[in-house]
Specification:
The protein is of the alpha+beta class. 23% of the residues lie in helices and 31% in strands. The protein has helices at residues 2-16, 32-38, and strands at 43-48, 53-61, 65-69, 79-82, 86-90.
Length: 95
C-alpha cells in the first residue's frame, strides 16, 4: 500500500510542477517596448529585421534597448538589442 501511495504522491507532484503559460493581450497603444516590458523576467524569442533571432529572458527595457539574459544555446552570454531592429516578439502562450 505504501508503494502505491508513494507513486501517487510523486506523480501528483510532477504533474503540478509545470509552468502555466499566460495568454497574450495587446492593446492599441502597445508597441515592441511595452510588450517586452510587460514580459520582464519571462522567456521570449525576439525576431530581428535582419532575419536572426534571440531567445532569452527579458531583463531591463528602456526606450532604445532591451537586455536579454540567459540566451538559449549561449547560456553564458547576455545580449543588448536595439528595439528599433526588432521585427517581432514571440511569446509562448500554451504548454
Amino acid at each position: 500500500m505504501n508503494k502505491y501511495l508513494s507513486v501517487f504522491f510523486i506523480s501528483t507532484m510532477l504533474s503540478m510542477s509545470h509552468v502555466v503559460a499566460e495568454p497574450l493581450s495587446v492593446t492599441g497603444s502597445d508597441d515592441i517596448e511595452s510588450i517586452l516590458a510587460a514580459h520582464s523576467g519571462k522567456r521570449v524569442t525576439v525576431q530581428m529585421k535582419s532575419g536572426g533571432e534571440f531567445k532569452g529572458k527579458v531583463g531591463e527595457v528602456n526606450g532604445d534597448i532591451v537586455h536579454l539574459m540567459e540566451l538559449t544555446g549561449k547560456e553564458f552570454f547576455d545580449a543588448v538589442v536595439s528595439i528599433n531592429m526588432i521585427e517581432a516578439v514571440i511569446i509562448r502562450t500554451r504548454n
